[in-house]
Structure formats: structure tokens, C-alpha cells
Amino acid sequence: MSSVVLAPAAFCAIALHSNRHKHSTVHGVLVGSRVDSMIRVEQAIPVCHHAPTIPLVEAALGLLADRTIVGWYTAPMLLDETAASPVALRMVAGLE
Questions:
Q1: pLDDT range class, residue 96, cuts 50, 70, 90
Q2: How far apart are CA 10 and CA 90, in angstroms?
Q3: b/e sequence 15-31, b meaning 16+ C-beta within 10 Å
Q4: What is residue 44's predicted lDDT score, i.e. its pLDDT?
Q5: Do 70 and 37 contact (CB within 8 A), yes or no?
Q6: Residue 32's beta-bridge partner residues?
Q7: pTM
Q8: One-character DSSP codes across 32-81
Q9: Which residues make Cβ contacts (< 8 Å) with residue 18, sequence separation at least 6?
Q10: What does the alpha-carbon distance between residue 42 and residue 7 come to, in Å, rounded to a whole number?
Q11: Rounded CA gap, 47 and 94, in Å?
């Protein structure tokens, strides 16, 4: 099982992205490093505030080609949504 360390700047970026788009689900890429079973998230890069399209995601990932992508974040519009959406699951599967 991996442990995840989230840098304060990454957390703030996700919070700001979701705060700016309160009436939408927001999506983004997590950039950082992996050492053995530890994942360190150093940056959260916002991608969109609607359902991500393939061209948009390909462009975002292309701009981050020289970085280590360690994950994808999705912040739902409603706080009580605790299950991952089909969109989020599809994005994570595509990153593998």
C-alpha cells in the first residue's frame, strides 16, 4: 500500500480551483514524485471545470510531458458526493 504526501501548495491549488468554480466539478493533474511506496504530490495543475474532453486532456498532458504525473484530482460540485465519478475513473485508468 502506498502512502501519499500532499504538499500544502498542491492542496491550496485544488481548493482555489474548486472555489473559483463552485457550480462545477473541477479536474486536474497531480505532479510530483514516487519513491518506493511513497507518492509525494508537489503540484496540482488545474485542467478544466467541466467534463474533460480527450483533446483537452491530451493537450494538458502534452504540456506536462517532462514532469512526473502521479495522479488526477476531481473535486465534485456537491460536498456529499464521496464516490468517484465515471469521468474520474476513466481519467485515472487512462493515466496508467
A1: low
A2: 22
A3: eebbeebeebbbbbbbb
A4: 97
A5: no
A6: 41
A7: 0.85
A8: EEEETTEEEEEEEEEEESSPPPHHHHHHHHHHTTTS-EEEEEEE-SSTT-
A9: 26, 75
A10: 5
A11: 15
What's the full length of the chain, in residues? 96
pLDDT of residue 22: 87
CA angle 67, 53, 41 (to 5 degrees): 30
Encoded amino acid at 88, one letter: A
Cα–Cα distance, 73 to 87 (Å, whole number): 11
C-alpha dist (Å) from residue 48 to 25, 40, 55, 86, 91: 9, 23, 12, 16, 13
| CA distances to 8, 9, 52, 83 from 87, in Å | 26, 25, 8, 11
Residue 8 CB: number of other CB atoms within 10 A? 7
- Rounded to an integer, what distance in angstroms lies between the CA atom of residue 71 and that of residue 73? 7
